[in-house]
Structure formats: structure tokens, C-alpha cells
Amino acid sequence: MAATLPPVGRRTVEALLTAYAKGLKDRRLVLVHGRYADNAPPEFSVKLGDETRRVRVSHQSSVLGILGEWAEHQEKSADADLLVVTTGVDDDHLGWDLRGHAVKRQTLTVDNAEIVMQRFGATSLDPRMYAREEAWLLEALLEAEPGQGWERGRAVLTCDAAVRALVVARLGLGGDGNVGTAGQDVAVDADTLLAWSRTPAGPLRFAELAQTERSEIKKWLGETAGQAVPVLMSLVEAGCGHDAMALGLLGAALRDPAASPDTVLALGGLFGQVMPRRGELQAFTEAVEGTLIRWIGEARGNPAARQRVFAVLDRADQLAADAGLTSGLVSNRFLPSSFTAQLRHVTAAARQSPTAAQAALDELSAHALVKLYADRHRAAAMAVRIARWLALPKPRVPSAAAGVQTQLADWGWVDRALAVLWAGDPGGDHGVAQDFRVLYDLAQAQRERLDKEFAGRLTTWTESATAQFPSGCLVVENVLPEVVKPIAATGAAPLVLVLDGMSTAVAVQLGEEAEREGWTEAVTRPSEGQALRRLAAVSMLPSVTNISRASLLTASATKGGQAAESSGFAGFWKAQRREAVLFHKAGIEGDAGRYLSEDVVAALATDAVVGVVLNTIDDALDKGQQGQRTRWSLDDITYLRELLAAAKGYGRPVVLVADHGHVLERGMSHGPANNGGAAAAARWRTGTARDGEVQLAGPRVWEGGGTIVAPWREDIRYTGRRAGYHGGASLAEVTVPVLVLLPDKALMPKAWEVLPREQATPAWWQSSVPEPVVEQTVTVVEERPKSAVRPKSGTRRARPEGEGLFAETDLDVAASEKAAARETATTLGARVVASEVYEAQKEYVRKAPEANVVAAVIDALAEAGETMSPAALASAVSATGRVRRNIDGFITTLQRLLNVEGYPVLGFIDAGHTVRLDVKLLRDQFFPKERE
Length: 932
Prior knowledge:
44% of the residues lie in helices and 11% in strands. It is built from 36 helices and 25 strands.
């Protein structure tokens, strides 16, 4: 059998010509021992020294063939053109007349090692590359060289560097493959190769390589890139490269020892002959999940990245469905089908038990697609919140004042959640939609009951209520004198932003966002024993713009348009010896290059009280342009964000206030109601009250001659259909939310306090209310008589000062405090401050706060689920009797006390808006023996 000729490619020919360039001179024939590759170009140009010469390559297996090629070349080619003939004919069979024309007068032998060394610009090769077992590498390197050559500059070309360069070139990881340095910075790891497997041509390039080369590349990748990569490359070889990531997601089910035999069998069928061992499969599935987590992080707000993620996930779902695996993959953290299944579990559980629903929601929250399905997850959270609210004792409406206050503090949040449930599952799942409707109907029935009770209280209250005698209510015409005036008394000119039609459901969303953007919300200090709560006023009646807004801005019960509002606003503040100006829609918009008008900006720069009326919400109700149906943000209200930014820049407090609220059209009414009497507007009329309506009469009723009929039911309207309505007697329409936002706590009015977001949010709205963290007493010390800790006669008693936040009075924080702490060490905080580690940490703090204050902060954070706003934390400190000054400085001091060796036990998250205590890490650092 004839010996196999060594393969010769274009790069080999170029290398030989370069090596023998000096010996070419006028010779035009080069004989090479080997076989020119069939797919190599027969003609090309090569630069030899300072000249470029044309080269034609031909393979001939006989002497006659070589002679024929040479004769033809001499006859038809230019004098500088070269003929390269690859052949297996021995020199002995070639005549001297032919060999005399050839370079070196003999057939040249290809030394792949020398050529590789030359092509990489190396002075030597790794000795392992000369071994027979590595012959494939040298041949592959010659064949795979990029268009402009390999990266040069290595003194010694190591085997690892050579294989890496080959992998980058063969798989196309370094770009288009025409530049030798294109892939020098490419990371050859599982993440890169998984992304490569999704490219159109990548897997095909690998599958077309020779078996030996594929095997060696897989071996090298397994050694350098981990166990996951050989599994991936095997799938590529089997023609499953494009589905490799999808298969990796499904294969994660086999990590569960409890996987059913049917699941194992179905997955085995999907993997086919590639089915890896358990350890290899685990490495592969974990690599796939890690890559997808990174991709998902990049997909938010990036349509192309999102499409890349769902191309994998949707394919995985399709493969699972085809194999009958969908029902067995409900717990999978990545599949869209498992997200929907877990979402159904949440909504179904919400109909049965709030506790079970919260557990199901926690499971759903761990799903990797939560960030990409944020709207669906938010809807599920609303369902759980409504379930918690429905499980509470049925609320009552004891008075009109209590009704509007609770509407803003609690029931407005219900309205916010119900808007989301009414809109349904953004993913359109039928089962979830049914559960939402059941929860909606239950909660809406409860809300209707509250509206009916309130309407009855409102009827009685309206008969005699006035601005002078409001019977415990804040009325809309008293907002300027009772709320805005005290703020102006601090010396800072407030900005009054009137959001026409802002309901309580909208107000709580805007307040939440404003707090996250650095505003401090302030409220009046409550009576002893009362909780902090936002201010809520009662609108004029009917709750329509031309009455309620005019009364708000003029500080008197009246009726009128923009002219009356502007003059009345300026007149009120003139009586307070303050300049004031009010802007309506036409005066807000700036000219080219300015978002706000020059007049608005100029007014904000003065000491005048500025009022601005924003009509976005009311216009949306009238014209059906609500944008996102389920929520409102600062960006949704035209000019609001810009006005807030300008106010903060000028150091102005802001009062966000409505003139009235609104109810939404739910598609449940059957056209305009005809209940007798004249219908003057969408939600009020004259005549006699019927079912779902009340008759209102009194000094604050400014239509119908002082007597009107207004519906408390949402599904009654007297005009054509719109997106929403106002003018009725429901809580959502009559309640006027008032939010006071401060750019700096130094502007806090007298007898006002910061409203922490935890106290602005109903308990049922929050994810859970953990049980208090109570620890077992570690050390019990018998109580000593008081004389045991009394200082000796003639000894001065220490008066240490607190750091930053505290001014110490007469507490002895020496041995007596330490002993007392140990005696009462029943909570986590008390145990920490009584520990030896804490005592050691105090050495690093010049003036440590009192132990009971530190303990109170730790306990408050632990009981709140490890996170609190700084304002809420300040309230927890105040409960110990200490004076609040600089809460941020106090938290910094606590970090020095609790963050042992720099571990983040205590710190800020959420861009500084939340303080977090890692309770587990706290225990590990302060009670190390408990870990043993």
C-alpha cells in the first residue's frame, strides 16, 4: 500500500516560498513532497521580499504530469510567476533536466514544526509539539491560519497557546477570522462557548472538522474550560448545538434525586447518545443557568438581549412539551411555562389562604424570569395583598373624618391593588385571570360596603360642616391655611402642585416614588397614642373641578374658573404678607430648548409662594388617555418631574394636593342612569336619591341650590362613557390626598415629623410581618442591690457623650450598664451588646451610643424583616428616649460597631434609601461558638 502523502495547504506553500525566497532568484519551479488540498486555492499571490509574485499550485502523481505542467507554465505564464507542484514521485524518477529548473534542484520536504514556528514568529516550539501524537495540531495550525496570519511575538510557542489559537480560529470566536490578533483577548470559557453555540455558523464549523481534531479540541477544552464544555461540544457534534442551552435547562431536572423514571427516560431521549455522566451533566446545567442569569440581567430594557434570552427559553419549553415534560418541570427556575405554573399556584392559593399565597409568592419571586416578567409578578403580589386585606376583620366607617383618613392610609391602597387585578394577567393566562376576578369581586364588594357606610356618614356631616366648624375633618378650603401656611412659616417658600383629579390610589404611588428619589415626607405630629398618617381633606360637593379646585386655591368655599383661582390664590397669600403666583396649563410649557416656561423658572427663583395646576390625570379620565392603566408614576404626569427637580434645586418644600379624586370606568355600567331629576354631570344630579345614591345638602354643597344627589356606587353614571369620573360621593372621589415633601429635614415645620415609608404603608401591603426576634437568655445574673453599683464616695461619676445623634445625660455606661445588659439579655440586640465581641468592637469607636439604643436598633431591624428606611430607624431610636439628630451619622457609627472585620453586617441598600441588617452574618460574627 502506498504511503499517505502529507497534506499541503496554501499556508504551507507560502511558508516554503518564504523560507527559500533567497534561493528562488530566477527559478520558477518548486517541487514539494505532499498532496495539495482539494479545497485550497489553485492560484494566489505571495509577497517575497520586496516583490509580489503570482503562484499556481498543481498536484501531479506522475513524471509526465509534472513535465506537462512545467511545459505549459513556461509557455503561458509570465517570467516572474511560480509553479508549485506537489507530488509523491521520488527524485530518482525525475530527470536532471527537470530538477535543474526546481528550487534546490530537488523535491522539498515539508517540516510542519518549522513552518508553524515561522508562521507564529517563534524561535522555538514546546517540545510536546514534536511528538507524533501532536501531529494533528501542527497540520491544523497550518490549515487554520487566519487571512493575515497568526498573532506573532512569542519567543516560545507553547502547546497550550497553540491549541488556544487554533480553537479561536476554528470556532470563529475572534470575529471574522481574517485577522490573526482578533481573538487574542477572547475568553475561551463555558460562557463564551454557550453564546457561540447559538450562532448560525458556529456549531457547523466544529462539526466539519476531522474526528481527531474534534476529539483533541474537546479534551483541551475540558481541561481548561471545565466539565461543562465537552458536554456542549458533544451536543454540537451530534447536531444539537443550537439546542444545547435549551437541553441544559431541561437537564437540570436530573439533578433532583426525586426525579421520576418517566422524566429521566424522556430527558435521556432528548440527549440521545450524548447523555453525559451525572457530574458532567450537573456542571453543564449549572453553566447554562449561570449564562442565562447574566443574559437575563442584560435583557431589561434591551429588546435584542431579551430576544436572545427567550429564543433559548421558548425552545426549551417547546422541547419539554414535545417530550411530555412540562408538568414535571413546574419547579424549574427558568422556563416561561414554570413561571406561569407558579403564578397560577400563587393566585389559586390567594383564594384560600394568605399564608399559603405568600409562600407561593416567595417561590415565584425566586424564579429567574421575575425581572423580565415584572408586571406579572407585580400582579401576583397584588393578589396576595388583597388576600391579606380580606382576611382582616371587616373595617367600619365611624365618621366622615375617619373615612377620608382611612381611605388615604389604607383603602386607597386597596383601590391601587384592585386596579391591577381588574387589568388582569399581562401574560393573558386564563386560569390566573379567573382567580383575579374572584379576588376582585370579593374585595370590591367590601369596598362598596365601605362606600355605602361613608356616604351615610357624609350625608349627616354635610348638613352642618363648614370651614370654620369642620367636625374633625380637614376640608379642602382649609388646606392652604392649615397645611401650606405652617410650611411657609419656616422661611422657605413652598411650591403647591395641584394634581387635578388625583385619587388616593394615585397619590400613594407618587409618594412612594418621591421618597425613593430623595424627598422626605412630613406630616403633622399626631395626638398622644395616635399613629403618624398622611393628611386627607374632604372635597367640596359635588366633587368637581370648578368648585373644589377654586375652593382649594382661594381658601374659601367658592366656585369659579382659572381667573378666580389665580386672584384668590394671590389674595390669600397677600393677606399673609407673602407674594404668590399661580400657573395653569397654558403658562407652564417652555419655548424651544426649555421644558418649563421662563415665567415658571423665574417665579421658582424668588421668595414667592408658587402654585402650579397639572391637568394630566383629569385629562386622561376625560379623554381615555391613561397610559399604563394600572399605575401612575412621576413621569406619567406632564411637567411633574421637572417641577420637582426645580423645587429641589431652589430648596422649596412641595405640597402635592388634589382638588378631588376619581373612580374608573370598569365596563360594569349599562349606559347613563335615568333615575329621575336632571343630570348636570357624570356623577351628580338633582332629584330624589335611588339605590346606590345619597342626597347631600348643606353649606358645602355648591350646586343644585344646595341639594344634590350623588352616587356612592362606582357603576352609576349620568353621561356618556369615559375612562373615569368624579363628582360622586364615594371615598375615592371625595377624599383629597395631601402630601408634603421636603428637600431637607431642616425645613421641617414646628410640630411636624418625618413620615417613614413603613408607617405610610399599611401592614397588610407589606410582604410579611415577622414575629419579634426573642432570644433565650445565655447568662443569668442575680439582681444586685442598687448599692452594689453606686459609685464610691468622692469619686466623680462619668458623663460620656454620645456620638453624632445623641447627647448623653446622666447614664453610667461603664460596668453597671454592662451588668444590666447581661441581666436582661433576652433579645437578639441585648445579646449582641452584652457579648465579648461587641465590647472589643467598642474599642474602635471613640464615643459609642448607649447599649440599649444599639440593642433597640438591632431588634427593630430584625423584627422588620432585616430592612427599614432611615426614617423608620430614627423612630425606633426615638422610642428609647434619645434625641434624633443625624441618623446617617448614627448608622455610620453602628457600622463601625457591628461590621466586624469589615463584614457587611449593617449597611445601606436600594441606593441609600434602605438600611439592611444581615441577621445571619450578625450571629456568625458575634456568637461564633454557636456555629460549632
